[in-house]
Every structure is written in structure tokens, then in C-alpha cells.
Amino acid sequence: MAEELITRRCGDTGLLVELGDNRRVHAFAAAVRAADLDGVVDLVPALDTLLLVVDPALTDPPAVEGLLRDLEVGAVARAENRRVEIPVRYDGEDLSWVAEHCGLDERQVVRRHTATPWQVGFCGFAPGYAYLVGGDPALRVPRRRESRVAVPAGSVAIAGQFSAVYPRRSPGGWQLLGHTEVSLWDTEADPPALLLPGDEVVFCEVAS
Predict the structure, then answer these.
(1) Residue-by-residue DSSP string for 37-103
(2) Which pLDDT tens digit goes with each residue over 164-184?
(3) What CA–CA distance (Å, rounded) separates 181 from 6?
(4) Which segments of 103-188 does DSSP mark as H helices, in order?
(5) Angle at 202 (CA atoms; ends 162, 164), nearest 5 degrees
(6) How far apart are CA 132 and CA 137, in angstroms?
(7) Across-strand partners of 122?
(8) Closest by alpha carbon to 91, among 172, 165, 151, 177?
(9) Helix axes 95-102, 106-115, angle to 10 degrees
(10) Where would you tag: which of 22, 69, 95, 167 has the fewest CB atoms within 10 A of its CB?
(11) Which of 2-11, 80-89, 159-168 has the weakest average pLDDT?
(12) Contact between 54 and 40 (Cβ < 8 Å)
């Protein structure tokens, strides 16, 4: 690699690579997968970092770190990513507040949320919960001052630079735009999560 690689040890089997940008995270993950490095058994993308988990019977983090410095990392081609369409009824409790906060009307909020593809930056919080990045910057809004005790499963929400779909009923403090009937987490499926890091997500409006 042309620039210095910043890494940190995570216990005996983890190596955290600090990349500073989610697009670089996915490009680096693609390069690691393509290199098929011996002993690397899992990759965990986050917003700005990538965690590599190794099998200590086969290698160790210092050995993997040495191999990473020789990786050729390029941009991830859009064709390599899965495209997932999610139908949404834009009837969320916070839609009008979001519109007012952003200086838009409700129809403009819907158009901006659906017009720009999102990407799964990383997953967390709950099984099947995907943090989506890359949407229209005009829709950046703060979290609610007080979280809701229970957000219904399928709720489509935004906060900060992110959008997401709640995979199950849970507490949450994001602004609700609408809801979908699509299941985000199915223990009978392989993999159980509908959305995986790197996937492209397009929201499609359906009639209320």
C-alpha cells in the first residue's frame, strides 16, 4: 500500500485496521477476501475501521499485519455489490418534523430518501440492524431528544448520516419516516440477515 497502515491489536485473535472512511473499509475488505489470507476467518466492517479475526492455530495478528501492508487495494466496483429494494409506506410519526427541520415538504423528503441509493456501511445494535450510509445529505437530522420505549419492527428511520430499518420491536431514538413489511432478520434463512455490509439499498415508495 502507498500509505502507512494504522492497525491496533484486539485481544489475541483480532487486528483492527483504521481506514477513516467507509468506502475504504469495503475496498480493503474486498482486497482481503480476494487475497484469501491464511488464518483470517472473519471480517467485521464498521464505519471507519475493519476488524480481522484470525485462527490462532494457523496464524497470529502480527503475521497478518505484515501481509496487509502488501495488499493492492482498489475501489469496489458497484457491480460487485448486491442490490436490495425495500418497499416503504411513508407514514412515519416523524415525517412532518423531518420535513420542517430540513426546510422541505413531506413529498420532497420521500423523493430524496428514495432517489439516492444507500449502502450498508456496517451492522450492529440488534440482529439484522444495518446502518445505511451515502443518502441525500439534505436529510441529515439529529436523533430524538428522548428515545421511544418501543419502535415497531419494520420502521424506516433516519438520524445523522444514517438510515435504517428496525428488524424487530425495540427501543430507538431515530426519526421515523415510514414502515416496510420486509423481514430484515429470518433465522431460517442463510444468511439470516437480509442486509449485509457493502449491499446497495434502494427504498421504493408504495401506496399507503
Answers:
(1) -TTEEEEEE-SSEEEEEE-TTT--HHHHHHHHTT----PPPGGGS-EEEEEEB---TTHHHHHHHHT
(2) 999 999 999 999 999 999 999
(3) 42
(4) 106-115
(5) 30
(6) 13
(7) 131
(8) 177
(9) 90
(10) 69
(11) 2-11
(12) yes
